[in-house]
Amino acid sequence: MELIFHFFSVVVPWIVRIVLIAIGIFLLVLLGRAIRRFSIDRLRYERHFSDACVYEGDSVELIETIWNPTVFFIPFADVESYFYSGLAIDGRKTEKGGMGLFVSRFHLLPFEKVTRKIRVDCVKRGHYRLTSVSVFRCGVENHIDAPTEIYVYPRIETMSENIPSAYGLGDALSRRKLIWDPFSVNGIREYQRGDSFRDINFKASARLSVGGSPRFVVNRYEYCSNLKYYIYQNFHLPKNSDILYDEYEELVEVGLTLSASLLVKALDAGGLCAFSANCGTVEGELKVSYQLRGGEVHKNDVLREMSEIRAIDGVSFAGLMAADIARGVFSSEVFVITPYMDESIGEQISILERFGNTVRVIIPEVSKHESV
Q1: What is the pLDDT of residue 18?
Q2: What is the mean pLDDT of each run of 10 residues along the chain (372 residues)?
Q3: Where in the sequence is the domain holding 202, given as residue range(s)?
Q4: What is the rounded CA–CA span in Å between residue 240 and residue 225?
């Protein structure tokens, strides 16, 4: 009996200690998980692009901001997000049509806020919306809404052999009198040497001057001659065409590059410009039509629509042109971007020329642009 009593008097306290230690470890594990869950749930994350609208081929920054509002240290917090193949994140490209995963890792001290900038290359035209991210740490996951978006306009080409010359765009001599109207402001631009002092827009300059460094902008005016440009793009293909969809999609991109380049130069020169195309839209429409207007707002509206255009054909191209002619198209520069010519399109071009318009037909090609 004494041996049994001695055994229990020695062993039982150790067993109790071991059980208490195990319970303590178990409680610490539960507490650690609770702290991880609490800290991850309390994280604040947001992101935005440095520019809302850019051209294809440009680069922007994705600015991430994450804040730890708790008293706990949060190491190895991985923020995961999916990106479209049209955006190359930090130099990483994704297969066409796929989605790429990008992970940002953060180590956050108590009450620390971290801002990180990531380079994004805009490799393809489109409208890209990013919605939410997932935050992972030691098996704990939290989904955070972090919406942001960016419009990637079609690529802009300089006026070269790829872009046909136009009288009103400054590429050839014109008999029209280009006299600007000092009472009709078209927009603003950066101050350049030689600009008149009276053209400086002091209110806009004050708003744009940040951090004590002055930045001057001047007014840009409409022209009294009201230079008018019409751009038509045909998304139809000729009958019995055996072109593959990838080649058709590239042909569409070439046409949009031409359209956007002409639009930007025409509007930046102070003219008025209209754009129409028989294409599909995100709303399910089968055409895009912007009437004759000028200014920066109109330019951005049309370019934003171009970024969302789908590579599918829509209404009759000849009918699209006829609708504009019925509203009146006179004494204007008209650009017709079409992969083919037929009798119905030629008829509309003849009508335009009878009304005193200068019509230039552009046949886009995948390898080069050809003007006829």
Answers
A1: 84
A2: 66 78 82 76 92 93 94 89 88 76 91 94 93 85 91 82 46 46 72 82 82 79 70 89 84 93 88 92 89 92 94 90 90 91 93 90 70 37
A3: 185-223
A4: 45
Tokens of 36: 């991880």
Q: Over the stretch 41-68, which tens digit does the pLDDT of each residue have?
A: 889 999 999 999 999 999 999 999 999 9
- Quote the pLDDT of residue 174: 45
Q: What is the residue whose two structure tokens read 């004759």? A: 292
- Residues in CB range of 176: below 8 A, 6 or more apart: 167, 168, 225, 227
**Do residues 170 and 78 lie in contact, with contact meaning Cβ atoms separated by under 8 Å?**
no
Helix/strand/coil (H/E/C) assignment for every residue in 143-164: EEEEEEEEEEECCCCCCCCCCC
Same domain for 53 and 196, yes or no, is no
Please give the sequence-ordered ranges of beta strands (E in DSSP) within 154-307, or none if there are none: 180-190, 217-223, 228-233, 272-277, 279-280, 288-293
Beta bridge mates, 113? 67
Residues 200 and 339 in one domain: no
The neighbour count for residue 98, using CB atoms within 10 Å, is 10
Rounded to the nearest 10 degrees, what angle do helices 245-268 and 296-308 cross at?
Answer: 180
Beta bridge partners of 140: 137
pLDDT of 224 reads: 52
| 275 within 8 A of 290, measured Cβ to Cβ | yes
pTM, full prediction: 0.74
Residues 231 and 216 in one domain: no
Q: Are residues 203 and 131 in the same domain?
A: no
Q: Are 372 and 359 in contact (CB under 8 A)?
A: no
